[in-house]
Structures are given as C-alpha cells and as structure tokens.
Amino acid sequence: MEQKIAIIDGDNFSDLETFYDEVDRVLTKDINVKTGHNLDAFNDILCGDFGVFSYNETLKLIWTNFTKSRKNLGDELISVLTGIIRKHDHIEFQIID
C-alpha cells in the first residue's frame, strides 16, 4: 500500500484558528462532526480515522512554508504543535520552507 501524504501549507493560515481550519481541510474528509479547535482535538485528528487516514495508519505529514508559520504563530506555539506531531510514531514529519 502506498504511503499517504498530507501537506499543511503555512501560506493558508496566519493564526491558531486558521491553522485548525487548515488541519481540518487537510486531515479530515467527509465526517459528520465539527472538530474541536484545540490542542487535544489536533492530537486526536493525528491519530487518524477522520476520513483521510485510518487509526495509526502510516502518514507522511509535510509542513510547507514553515518559517512563515513560525513567524505568525510564535516559537512557543510552534514548539507545542510540532511536539504533538512528533509524538505520533506512525507519522513521518517533514518541514519544508
């Protein structure tokens, strides 16, 4: 089976709320519930089963325009978000500027 790839694009958001919108756009599909826009919900989405990839299925997650994201969100929040991503062993995480 081919590895699924998802791309979070830093050009598509400028604050935490629009970051969550980008996560919803990229990592959820055809679900009948609104996802929470908070760190716990972000962690849950990364587990899978929100329409794009199955629970704990291997996923390559690419974050493009990362420097812009760091500038917009700040170092502390970026550290929290990337820490949440990196704790998921089934996600191969790549940063691209």
UniProtKB/TrEMBL annotation:
It holds the Pfam family Barstar. Residues 5-81 form the Barstar (barnase inhibitor) domain. SUPFAM superfamilies: Barstar-related. InterPro entries: Barstar (IPR000468), Barstar-like_sf (IPR035905). Belongs to the barstar family. This is Barstar (Barnase inhibitor). It comes from Mariniphaga sediminis. The lineage of its organism: Bacteria, Pseudomonadati, Bacteroidota, Bacteroidia, Marinilabiliales.
